[in-house]
Amino acid sequence: VVAIGGGGRDGDPLSPTSDAPFGTSAMVALAGELGAEVDVSDSLPDLGADDAPAVVVLFLDLLDDDQRDALEDWVTAGGVLVVTDPVSSFAPPVSDEFVTIDDLAPASRLAAACDIDALEGIDVAGVDPRNGGVLYEPDPGAASCVDNGSGDAYIVATDRGEGTVVAVGGAGMMVNAALAEGENAPVVSALVAPAEGTRLLVLEPGPLAGSSTGRRRLRELIPAGVCRAILQL
CA 21 from chain center: how many Å? Predict the structure, then answer.
């Protein structure tokens, strides 16, 4: 019954309210302990309001065009967007060879060079994206961290107007099961809660309310035939 009905508190993968291994509630708690003003939402708020967030975390980009335009305008005006979806339009191109960070594991074999200011002084070679990820091709002038020596990198920070888009090649180091591994927590903290009082918005990974795709949980995107096959097994 538990398997069929769901675990309740477990929530969806990457959900900031989920305590399951692949949830991200620990990241939310950590940011709060560091003094960030954290808001978790399944809808995109008015980013032009006085209390608008300074940092937004987007795990999975299922935004519609209007939401994407609003987020782009907010970044250009000075916001910081942390995105972990490699196919998002906010992320730089993935390496032509689609090299995964697993191919270069352990992460300590990657170059420790880092020119992202927010990560200065952190041993980025200790990043442990337990569930893998991809490497990006940084745009000219972009800052990067955890690279393979040929320019491709796991973390890329690109200036857009007055703001910055920080693209991470996956959310592997942010999930509950991996946050305490290696230098994951210091790196994640520096990206999402760089200073006490930072206003942080963490978006639920499902389609956002108001999107033309409707509002459905990730498990509802699984075809019914697949669900029946799983139940039969």
Answer: 16
